[in-house]
Amino acid sequence: MITIENLNFNHSKEKQLFQDLTLQLNSGNIVGLLGKNGAGKSTLLQLLSGLLSQKSGNIDINGFEPYDKNPNFLSDLYLVTDEPYVPNIKIKSFIKNFAPLYPNFDVEKLKNILIEFQLDENMKLDKISYGQRKKFIIAFALATNSKLLLLDEPTNGLDIPSKKIFRKVLIESINEDQLVMISTHQVKDIETIIDKIIVIDHGRITFNHDLYEIAEKLQFKKVPSIHNEDQVFYSEKCPEGYHIITPVNKNEETEVDMELLFNAINNNIAIHI
Amino acid sequence: MEKYFNLTRFSKYFRYNLSIHYKAYFITCIILLIGLVCTNYIYLCSNHEYKANTHVTIYTLSYCLSAILVIGTGFPELRTKSKTIYFLTIPASVFEKYLVQFFIRTICFTIIYHVLFWVSLKLAHHFYMLTDYKKHFAIYDYNFFSALENSRPMQMYVPISLIIAMCLMLFTGSIIYKKHTLFKTVFTVIAIPFGIYVILLIYSYIFHPGATDDFYPTLYNRYLYDGGIYGYGTRLILIITITSFTSLLLIPFAYFKLKEKEL
Description:
The complex is a heterodimer.
Chain A: E1 2-9, E2 18-25, E3 29-35, H1 41-48, E4 56-61, H2 71-74, E5 77-80, H3 91-98, H4 107-116, H5 130-143, E6 148-152, H6 160-173, E7 179-184, H7 187-190, E8 196-201, E9 204-210, H8 211-217, E10 218-223, E11 234-238, E12 241-247, H9 258-266
Parallel strand pairs in A: 3-7, 3-8, 5-6, 6-7
Antiparallel strand pairs in A: 1-2, 1-4, 8-9, 10-12, 11-12
Chain B: H1 7-46, H2 52-71, H3 81-88, H4 94-131, H5 153-176, H6 181-207, E1 223-226, E2 229-233, H7 234-259
Antiparallel strand pairs in B: 1-2
Helix pairs in contact in B: 1-2, 1-4, 2-4, 2-5, 5-6, 5-7
């Protein structure tokens, strides 16, 4: 689905961001693209959606080069940005006029998601709050049934119940031939829905594993004290004692604590998977 | 070919564009109409004559001013980052996006402007008759080309080619400049002819220092001899050549600038 080979990119007058970046992603995944501020997450999404041109290297998405801006490619891609632009019209007018540009658009699906998000079709897009606008754009993006969905900080501005609904509708809406990339630094918001983690740091991919691989090889526990330090990859103090990452013991699987894992990766801890 | 243009997709995008911007287009038409009515009314009140030459002058000057506002503010989605992202990811080809703006901002605008001018003239005349009927006079039928009806065709092409070149410069400027678009575009529209004039002046001083007078470049105007009569002057042909070449160059240039548009 997505093949990136030896990608080199830098914003003008800035130092190199991506250097020989290589990445392959297949459909049927919800990928969490994690990283600190300025790591290059949004830039990568912008390169994938053809908004920026790479200095060298190849990006291939279903046989298309994004920067060519082929309309057939664009009709199978939806990018939800952190601050999405919406025109000053009613939701129903937006749907009526914009949806026909997406050949696989599912109006019924959109209506159901709008109900879940408690959005009315008669609402004017310029009169609703930032969070509501974000929810509408997420709903619209999901209803396009695009093969590639790029969500940049989708949970920013969403209240706690809306974050829960977002996770629910995302899981329900996505099928096997779609790929969703969620870029965020709010790791907790997406940890229950993603099945692959990619961590970017200073334009380099520092971690790229499926969730099941992580769960098979690592344990995430809360312990009152640390006895055998050699067995602990990473630890963080907490009120109850310590959050720790250890190798799997006796095939006992635990839930992946993504925030702990992310912090470990960011602290350059060698995680062996 | 489908990659560049598809009639169904184009019509969907065109309809979408109208649905998004119809209010702005409508308000522009209203403002334009009010402006034209006021201009024509003021002119009627202060003059005793209103012939074809007069209203063609007002028509042309107002057209140029309106074109600056309408064409110079084309591609409104390219002004901010979030709008640019939205615009560039709309599933229509770059050519279709270009064509929609070109069609609305130049062709539709020119047609609508013509209609609005006609309406404004009639309205201004009507208001004038209500307020100052003593200076009663008829308004002749107006036509964009009527002032030039007695001129030879080549002379008519000069203002037309100048206006077309100006419109295309404004259109290109609206793609190139992100911030202070209108100001930068107008500056460019003034700077390019001024640049040509300065170059001509410099060359005149270099090659014909004796024949050059202050700020007047030496442009020898030779009348072309055509089948027994003297035809058009070389100056006229030079102006038409420069403006036509500029226009032809700007059409693909604007397209490729849009195609290469990045965040």
